Each structure stands twice: as C-alpha cells, then as structure tokens.
Amino acid sequence: MSTDTDVSLSSYDEDQGSKLIRKAKEAPFVPIGMAGFAAIVAYGLYKLKSRGNTKMSLHLIHMRVAAQGFVVGAMTLGMGYSMYREFWAKPKP
C-alpha cells in the first residue's frame, strides 16, 4: 500500500485576500452588489433616527427593498456583462 502524502492542494494554498481578488476579477459585479448593499444598509441605519413619524416597520421594509433591488440589479448587469464577453466579444475562430 502506498500513501501519497505529497498531494498538491493548490486551492487550499491561497489566502482569503487573494481568493477574494481572484473571484472579483472573475465576476466584477458581485463585489459591487455587496458594497451597494452595505452602503444602503448603512444609510438606512443613519436615517433611522430622523425618520420622523414613519413607522419603524415601514422604514425597514423600504430599506430592505432598496438593498435587494440594488443587489438584483448588480447581478443582472453582471449576467449581461458575462454574456457579452462570452458570446459577442469573443473572437471568432
């Protein structure tokens, strides 16, 4: 019986920072969607104290819809961009 202890696991060799950069290059609209989501949530928390007489639940629903809309829009743009790269921008042999 031979045991192969010299197995190269290149996917486990990369740290989280380089993995995030590699994934961002593969799908650039994912980090844009994440950043937009975080920005909308931060804005919603900032505006929470000055919402006036608007109910808390209504304010939270509006912020959730805005954040989800931004993420869905970024995903849609990302899919359109990847389809463009794959089908139209690809050089024809």
From TrEMBL:
Record domain HIG1: where: 1-93
GO CC annotation, single: mitochondrial membrane
Main location: mitochondrion
Keywords associated with the record: Membrane, Transmembrane, Transmembrane helix
Location(s), subcellular: Mitochondrion membrane
Keyword Membrane: yes
Protein's UniProt keywords contain Signal: no
Residue ranges crossing the lipid bilayer per the database entry: 27-45, 65-84
PANTHER family: HIG1 DOMAIN FAMILY MEMBER 1A, MITOCHONDRIAL, HYPOXIA-INDUCBILE GENE 1 HIG1 -RELATED
The name this protein goes by in its record: HIG1 domain family member 1A, mitochondrial isoform b
Record organism: Daubentonia madagascariensis (Aye-aye)
Lineage of producing organism: Eukaryota, Metazoa, Chordata, Craniata, Vertebrata
